[in-house]
Each structure stands twice: as structure tokens, then as C-alpha cells.
Amino acid sequence: MKKIKKANLDRTYQIKVEGGTVGVDIVSNITTEKEYYRFVFAKDDGRISDPVRVSRNELNKVTMLRNLGNDWDGSVTDALRVSVEEKYKEIPVKYEYSEGYGWQCYEIEGTGEIGQVYFNGSSIVGLYKEYPLADNEYHLKKAGNLQNCIDICNNVMNDKTYTQIILASSLASVIAGALNLKTVIINIEGKTSQGKTTIMMLCASFWSNKEDKNISTSWYNTDNALVSMLNGNEGVLFIIDDTSKGERKDYTSIVYDIENGTSKGRLNRMFEVDNQVSWHTIVLSSSETSLYAKCDETKKGLLRRLVEISVYPGDLIDNVETADEINRVIDKNYGHIGMEFVNYLFKEGLHNNEFEGLRELYNEEKRKLQDRVGADGIYKGIAEKLATIMLAAKVAKNSMDLQFDIEEMEDAMIEIIKINAEKFKDSIGDRISVEDAYEELCKYARENCRHMSSLTNIIFLYIISMSRQQP
Known about the structure:
It is built from 14 helices and 14 strands. It is α/β, with parallel strands linked by helices. It folds into 4 domains: 84 residues, no CATH class; 30 residues, no CATH class; 283 residues, Rossmann fold, CATH 3.40.50; 36 residues. The longest helix is centred in the C-terminal third of the chain and has 24 residues.
């Protein structure tokens, strides 16, 4: 059953009128930089109208305000309009954004330089201030309190290194968005009832309610639908749950599309490419079997795009009771940890000069991981991706007292890098080389060409010549 939210008078400036009370607030759209009044009429009989939005210029249009009261005459709307204009500075202001999660900025006209930086999430954070949000279906949501969110995370993370890594990846999305790093998919692979979905919901609760369709979906979508949901996401975790719900036999293309971080360009009527939308974040996924086994084994670049964490009983949560406790807490407490993390970056000035300070910390973390994994290019490439997680864990531990065990996490991270490299090599298997394939084709031709027609001979020799040209 679809639930329809009705407006109320909470946190509005209230004006007594004939037949009831009008609540008014001001909504400022940070995306469009436009402002409007929002009116709600609570009748004496308890009924509440749908909100009516009116720009300051439209206040003189009697019909706009008359929509609030079925039998109002001009004197009522005139009095209401005068009262609103007189009390303008006392009317509470709320904010909204209409596109783009995560980092946004204003560009200084004519210079190309970046102006004010802000972050869209369950609130809007910018210039050391957190702005309250107006009701909007596009917004991420917030409820409960921060401490409840921190406490459940610390309880669950205790002696669970993989859980710590996965939770830290939810905050690593902020760093990926800030530094315009390529999106990486972290796939949690393991049998059912290991706690994969529960932990992913806990990660989602950092940003909104656990089932918010704006940042969470399943693999039961087309490639275009999945990519479109990522459009404009510059730093908020995105979740794609359970590959068993999808019908894909090969995940190679969608993995590359997600990591690429740019929507496909399309020609318009003027034969120009329409504006392409980008994203930079972390994507959490889950599956019962390895995604490497469902990807093109010739694509070695997958290792820079897809990282798997294989889990077994007890790796993520202890038991069903723990899962129930997680769900009980995050049902009423969500949308806090992610914004608190962003607030800390602002307070420390890590957003200044196009995130110069944050980039230095990331590069330091990247070098540290790469030094530990050694000279192998594949290992270094994976380490570059996962450095955001280690940095996020350190920042979150300092800013919110989230009890990440940094040394254990780093050791586990090195092991994950090596396991992924080996797992990918195993998925390749033994493949015949180009030279061996060429020799086999020539041998077959020598033995069989005299039995084939002239046209068949020509086609077969052409195939042999083309195979010889392959690298």
C-alpha cells in the first residue's frame, strides 16, 4: 500500500486566519538558487491542506493563496499576504536540492574557478554550517541520533575486520567523490545467511534509511537503469544487492560502465553530443559466487575495477540476534554518520584549494599500501583503489570515535589484494597462446584443405592470416 505524506505545521511561522491556522516557511533551492514560500492551511476541524508553493512575485496573485481555503474572499488573502511580507525575517528557512548527491560546487563565472563547495545528503553541509532540509522525495533522510548509530557500529565491528573494512568503504565514497577518483565496486561474496545484506543496510544507514531507493537497488535492473541511478552521485555510497536477483550471465560490461563514471554520450538533432553525467563513489555489491567467474576472463583490467571480499560464517556478524539488533537500531536511527564525516572534513579545512589537504592524506595512504604489497603492478593498482578505505577509517576514528582497528584492517587489506589477484589468475585458467593457435590452424589446413572446396579454402586461409596478425 502506498503511503502519502500529509503536510503539517511543525517548524513553520503560524498565522491565525478565518477557519484555522496557516503555516508558512521559506524554501531555498540550492541547486537552482531560487526561493519560494510554502503555505499549509490547518483547518479548525483538523483537516490539513496540501502545501502550496508561491514565489514572492506570485503573492499578489489572489488565486494562488485562495487555493488554500475554498471559501476565502479577497480580504483574507490580502491580510495573509501583508502579514507574510511584514514578518519575512521571522519565517523559518529550509533548504532543498533537486539534483546530485555528494559534493557540489559553484563555478565562478568567467574564470572557471571553483567557488563555494557544499555536500548534498540527509542535510546540506557547506561553509562550516549544516542546513536543514525541506520535505522532498529526492532528499536522503535523517532520523534518531548520531550516538545510537555509532554505538551499534562499534558493537558490530568488535573483532570483525571484514565488517570494519565494509563499513569504512561507506565513508570512503566521500573521498572518492571529493578527489574525482574512479568508482570501484566492492563485492561481498559468500553463501546466504552470512549477514551480507544486513551489513550493507548498516552501511546505507550512514546516509539515509536502510532501503532508500535513491541509493540502493538490486541487480534486477538493466545496465542503463543501473548507470542512470548513479548519475550525479559524487560521494554517497551506492548499493546493488544480490546478483541472484539478476539475469546477467556476464558482468564485464556493467563493471566497466560503473567504473568509467560517465554516462554514454548521445547525438542530438544538431549532431552534437549531449551533456554527459558523471559519478565518483563506492559501490557495494553482494553475490553468492564470485563475480570474477561471471566476467570475461581476458579482461585483466577488472582487477582495478572490482574487488571481492569472500566471507564465511562469523566473518561479518555473530548470529541472528546481532542481525535483529542492527535492524532494530537502524530502523529509527539513520542519516547521521555520513554527514558527520563530511562535517569533519569541512571543519579541518580539507575541502580548501580543491581538496588539496585531503589529496595529500590520500596519496600518503596510497604509498603506504603500495609499499607493503610490493612491486607487482596488479597489486599496486588494487592498493590505489583501497587506500580511500584506510583513510576513511582513520578520519572516522578521529572524528567520531568509531572503533576501527587500523593495524588489523591494513593487514586484512593486504591479504584481500593478494587473494583478488590470485582469484583472477585462477579464473583465467590455461589458455592457448596466439602462436599455438596459429600452428594448430596451419596443421589443420595442411591436413584438410585438399578435401575442401576452393571457396572454403579461401575463407579458411583468410582466417589463418588474420589470426597471425593478432598481438
